[in-house]
User: Which sequence fits this backbone?
């Protein structure tokens, strides 16, 4: 289970200014085209999307795009960006290419927190802030369990314990569901991960949370660069390794919880996109854009697949299914090349 | 001198423990089986197990509890054996049966039948599960053929398993509220509602698997040496590994068809067997993991039936809990030692 593609430190890659401008432009163009494709894939007429540009939503189709299409797009973009940045921070801090929100107990913990909050009635079922709080608590507990298992050991070992901790949290989620099987249908959305059915009220708080988290992670780029090579390297540059890691992990947990409170357990975006970003030679921001593009693209595919199945699906095709299939393909390629 | 004297009682104690272990496991299995037959509603005293054929106690014990205990014991043994085969052939303690796409394949096949209301009679579901398990295992084998190392096979297995799990959840997302109970079993595993009919259908497969497992033993000894050493000794490593994988897929499929995936027993049983007999090899561990797998499954099923009575919790949740906790303890001890 070793991956040999360990890239250099994040952050300062020393790209010349024109190249950087070109990359920013390319990223913006990519983001815009994915956004347009996502809106077009929803099946609403293109005129309704163009009609929104005048600032008011008039007519049924424009209302649908404004009330459902745009929030769904934003949810996909924000979730993807948050997961990618969280994965990027985790991989740099734990110095392990397989570190990811879903492999470190944080994401399963957040999902367990949300489901426990709903089932036990601690948070109301339709409250965005309540879901975020439950996800934060669960994510912190999940990350904490992993941390306890692996305390005072090589950070590289954290992934094995993370897998175990994730399995433990998965077992607890199962127990919770077994306690009230009739709620299984409501829980399914969080277990697979889906960006459907989010409206502006859900986004109001979570979007600020995620954008703030990404900004903090971006501000910490230098810290990540110092921490990535080794603890000794960080200490010799005057950074307390434990403190730096604590800050970075807090950022990663908050971002993962924010993403989970919007869309549940979306797998593989946090594992794969940071690698893509590092291969492109970028830092936190590249990872964010790569994640946003990846998840919005996956959701575009999910919408198209939903149209093919002609709406027989109660939930549509959940986005998490597309990302899991894509991630499986990546894993198979990895296994074959070994 | 004093240290030698001090060491002797400890060594003698360990020897006694080693000698007593087979007796203890057999006794534990017998006790758990007896408890499985007697406890529950209605409670049937051990002296009433052979009551008159027309009494309620007789029907409950012989029509409901005996098949359940029987299938729990055999299923646990099969999963424990399969876990040992996988761990030894892939040389990785995390190579659990859930990781090669077999249990998820069975779950997918059954849930497709349930959700899309295919005209399949209820009694044939275990057979459908078996077919799905064969399909999942087949896909893994075909894709894994191209992976050259044990780690690569493990990654490919995990990938296939994840993909099938995603499809399973996608199918479940379309299900009705009323179908969840049925589907839930195939997500987590349970022994509830098993009778002689299902038991009879699975028994021949178990019987067929036993000689195949015996055939795997020599291959395990070679694979354990590592790819290079095994190849140098003239073994065709890829083919041997695929053969072992196929036998474990058969074992897991036999269990998943009627009961759903019994999670983590395939991890727990071999690990416990290794701790009981640290210096032995696969030939010794094989019967031990079978016995311990049966022990763990029976105990977990008892907990599933009785812990929150009258509500029955799924067996898989209990085995997962036990497996993960034990795994964490063992790993911790290993790294600190």
Assistant:
């Amino acid at each position: 289970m070793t991956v040999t593609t360990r890239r250099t430190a994040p952050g300062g890659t020393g790209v010349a200014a024109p190249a950087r401008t070109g990359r920013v432009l390319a990223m913006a163009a990519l983001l815009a085209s994915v956004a347009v494709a996502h809106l077009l894939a929803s099946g609403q007429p293109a005129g309704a999307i163009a009609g929104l540009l005048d600032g008011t939503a008039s007519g049924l189709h424009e209302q649908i795009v404004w009330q459902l299409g745009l929030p769904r797009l934003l949810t996909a973009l924000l979730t993807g960006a948050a997961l990618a940045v969280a994965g990027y921070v985790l991989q740099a801090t734990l110095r392990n290419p397989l570190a990811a929100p879903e492999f470190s107990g944080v994401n399963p913990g957040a999902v367990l927190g949300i489901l426990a909050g709903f089932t036990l009635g601690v948070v109301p079922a339709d409250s965005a802030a309540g879901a975020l709080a439950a996800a934060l608590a669960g994510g912190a507990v999940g990350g904490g369990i992993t941390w306890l298992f692996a305390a005072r050991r090589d950070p590289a070992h954290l992934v094995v314990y993370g897998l175990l901790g994730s399995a433990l949290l998965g077992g607890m989620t199962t127990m919770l569901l077994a306690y009230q099987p009739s709620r299984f249908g409501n829980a399914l959305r969080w277990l697979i991960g889906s960006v459907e059915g989010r409206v502006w009220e859900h986004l109001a708080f979570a979007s600020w949370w995620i954008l703030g988290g990404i900004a903090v992670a971006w501000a910490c780029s230098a810290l990540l660069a110092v921490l990535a090579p080794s603890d000794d390297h960080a200490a010799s540059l005057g950074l307390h390794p434990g403190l730096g890691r604590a800050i970075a992990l807090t950022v990663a947990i908050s971002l993962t919880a924010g993403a989970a409170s919007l869309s549940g357990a979306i797998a593989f975006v946090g594992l794969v996109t940071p690698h893509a970003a590092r291969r492109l030679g970028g830092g936190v921001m590249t990872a964010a854009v790569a994640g946003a593009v990846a998840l919005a693209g996956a959701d575009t595919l999910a919408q198209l697949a939903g149209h093919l199945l002609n709406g027989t699906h109660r939930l549509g095709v959940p986005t998490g299914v597309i990302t899991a299939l894509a991630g499986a393909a990546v894993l198979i390629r990895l296994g074959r090349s070994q | 001198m004093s240290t030698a004297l001090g060491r002797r009682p400890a060594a003698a104690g360990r020897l006694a423990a080693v000698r007593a272990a087979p007796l203890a496991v057999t006794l534990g299995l017998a006790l758990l089986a007896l408890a499985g037959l007697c406890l529950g509603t209605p409670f049937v005293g051990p002296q009433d197990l052979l009551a008159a054929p027309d009494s309620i106690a007789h029907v409950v014990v012989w029509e409901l509890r005996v098949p359940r205990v029987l299938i729990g014991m055999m299923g646990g043994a099969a999963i424990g054996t399969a876990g040992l085969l996988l761990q030894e052939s892939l040389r990785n303690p995390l190579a659990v049966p859930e990781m090669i796409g077999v249990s998820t394949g069975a779950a997918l096949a059954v849930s497709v039948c349930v959700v899309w209301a295919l005209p399949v009679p209820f009694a044939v579901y275990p057979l459908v599960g078996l077919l799905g398990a064969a399909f999942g295992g087949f896909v893994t084998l075909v894709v894994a053929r191209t992976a050259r190392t044990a780690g690569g096979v493990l990654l490919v297995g995990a990938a296939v398993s994840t993909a099938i799990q995603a499809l399973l959840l996608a199918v479940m997302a379309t299900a009705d509220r009323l179908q969840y109970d049925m589907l839930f079993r195939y997500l987590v595993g349970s022994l509830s509602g098993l009778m002689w009919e299902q038991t009879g259908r699975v028994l021949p497969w178990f019987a067929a698997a036993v000689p195949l497992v015996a055939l795997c033993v020599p291959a395990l000894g070679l694979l354990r040496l590592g790819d290079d050493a095994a190849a140098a000794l003239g073994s065709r490593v890829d083919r041997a590994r695929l053969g072992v994988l196929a036998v474990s897929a058969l074992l897991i499929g036999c269990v998943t068809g009627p009961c759903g995936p019994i999670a983590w027993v395939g991890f727990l049983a071999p690990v416990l067997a290794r701790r009981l007999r640290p210096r032995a090899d696969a030939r010794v561990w094989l019967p031990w993991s079978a016995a311990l797998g049966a022990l763990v499954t029976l105990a977990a099923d008892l907990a599933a039936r009785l812990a929150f009575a009258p509500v029955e919790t799924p067996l898989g949740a209990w085995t997962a809990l036990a497996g993960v906790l034990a795994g964490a303890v063992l790993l911790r001890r290993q790294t600190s030692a």
About this structure: Residues 2-38 of chain B form the longest helix (37 residues). Chain B has one domain: 55-336. Residues 55-336 of chain B form a domain with the ABC transporter involved in vitamin B12 uptake, BtuC fold (CATH 1.10.3470.10). Chain B touches chain A through 51 residues (CB under 8 Å).
